[in-house]
Specification:
The protein is about 25% helix and about 25% strand. It is α/β, with parallel strands linked by helices and about 325 residues long. The protein folds into two domains: about 1-135 and about 270-320, Ribonuclease Z/Hydroxyacylglutathione hydrolase-like (Metallo-beta-lactamase, Chain A); about 145-265, Rossmann fold (3-Layer(aba) Sandwich). Strands 6-5-4-3-2-1-20 form a seven-stranded mixed sheet. Helix 8 links the parallel strand 18 (about 290-295) and strand 19. Helix 1 runs antiparallel to helix 4. The protein is globular.
C-alpha cells in the first residue's frame, strides 16, 4: 500500500518514503535538486546523487548508495535504480514485488546530455511519472538548434562588447551550459554555487571545460554563468554592459523572457517535453499511469490514447495493483 501525504509518496509495506518534502527516517532521493533532496535520517540514492546531497546538505548526511542497474532488497521487494537523464546521478526507481512492477520516474528527460547518463525506460505494470510539460504546445526544438541559437547570441553579445550572462540552475543546467559553451571555445566564469557542484561532476568522471570562479572586475570577454537568483543585481552592476539569457523549457512560451526579466530565453530543458512524455508511456507499456508535478490535463491526453491514467491528489491512499 502506498499513500500520498502532502505531496510525498510513502510505501508503507517497505517503510520507505520517496522524494519526501520533509525529513523522514528512510527516504529514496531521486536526485539532488532542493525540491527533491532534503535531510533525512537515511538517504537512499545513487553514489553521484549522494555526493551532491553531501555537497548541498552537509558531510554528515547518512547515505545508502546503489549504482544504476544493481538490485537491492527492501523488505519483501526488490528495488533497482536506473538513469533518469535529468542531472548527474538522477535516477528512477523500479520496485518489483509479488503484485508486479512499479516505476517512479522522478524528474526525467529522454534526450541526450553532455553531463549525465541518458535515461532508460523499464516496462512496468504501474507508472508514477512527472508531467511538467504535459501540454501539446511544449515541444522543444532539436537540441542542436537550441545550442546553435545560444552560441549565436553569445557571439553577438561579445562582438558588441557586452558581457553575456547565462542564467541556469546551479545543479544540472549550469554544468550542461558549461559543457556547451566551453566546448564552443568560450572562456567561462561561474558562480561559486555552480563551481561547488561542478567539482562533484568532475570527481565523478564528467569532463567539464576549463572555467574560473566568479571574480568581480574579471568578466570582460568571458561568458558568465549564474543561478537565476544569487545576488544577480550586484553582480550585473560589476560587469561591462551585461546582456542576460535564461535556459528553460518555459522559453517555448512567447513571453518567457519578459517574465524572466532577461534579454533572451532558450528552450534548453532537463525535463521531458510533451512528445517525450507520450513516448515514455508507449515504451513502458504500463497498465496504469499515475501523474504528479505537472498539468492535470495530461490525464486527458493519455486517456485519449487509451491509457488508464489518474492525477494524484494529496492525502490519498493508493492500492497500486
Amino acid at each position: 500500500m502506498f499513500s500520498l501525504v502532502k505531496g510525498s509518496l510513502y510505501a508503507s509495506e517497505l517503510d520507505l518514503w520517496i522524494d519526501a518534502s520533509a525529513g523522514r527516517e528512510r527516504c529514496y532521493v531521486s536526485h539532488g535538486h532542493s525540491d527533491h533532496a532534503r535531510r533525512h535520517a537515511l538517504i537512499i540514492a545513487t553514489p553521484e546523487s549522494g555526493a551532491i546531497c553531501r555537497s548541498r546538505l552537509g558531510d554528515d548526511v547518512a547515505l545508502e548508495t546503489h549504482p544504476y542497474g544493481e538490485p537491492f532488497d527492501v523488505a519483501s521487494a526488490r528495488l533497482t535504480l536506473f538513469s533518469a537523464g535529468h542531472v548527474l546521478g538522477s535516477s528512477q526507481l523500479l520496485i518489483e514485488c509479488e503484485q508486479g512492477r512499479f516505476v517512479y520516474t522522478g524528474d526525467f528527460k529522454l534526450g541526450e546530455s553532455l553531463t549525465c547518463a541518458q535515461a532508460t525506460v523499464e516496462r512496468c505494470d504501474v507508472l508514477l511519472m512527472e508531467c511538467t510539460f504535459g501540454r501539446p504546445r511544449y515541444v522543444f526544438p532539436p537540441r542542436e538548434e537550441v545550442c546553435a541559437a545560444l552560441i549565436a547570441w553569445v557571439n553577438a553579445a561579445l562582438d558588441d562588447g557586452a558581457t553575456p550572462v547565462v542564467y541556469a540552475y546551479s545543479l544540472g543546467k549550469a554544468q550542461e551550459a558549461m559543457a556547451i559553451l566551453g566546448g564552443a571555445g568560450y572562456e567561462l566564469m561561474v558562480h561559486n554555487a555552480i563551481d561547488r557542484l561542478a567539482r562533484v561532476y568532475i570527481e565523478h568522471g564528467v569532463a567539464l571545460p576549463p572555467y574560473l570562479p566568479y571574480e568581480a572586475g574579471a568578466t570582460d570577454g568571458r561568458v558568465v554563468i549564474l543561478p537565476p537568483s544569487a545576488g544577480n543585481a550586484r553582480m550585473l552592476a560589476e560587469m561591462t554592459a551585461p546582456r542576460t539569457a535564461m535556459l528553460t523549457g518555459w522559453a517555448v512560451d512567447s513571453g518567457a523572457r519578459y517574465r524572466g526579466g532577461v534579454d533572451a530565453a532558450f528552450p534548453l530543458s532537463d525535463h521531458a517535453d510533451f512528445p517525450s512524455l507520450l513516448r515514455y508511456v508507449e515504451l513502458a507499456q504500463p497498465r496504469k499511469v499515475l501523474l504528479q508535478h505537472g498539468f492535470k490535463s495530461f490525464v486527458n491526453e493519455l486517456r485519449r490514447c487509451g491509457v488508464d491514467a489518474k492525477f494524484l491528489e494529496p492525502n490519498v491512499q493508493l492500492s497500486l495493483f
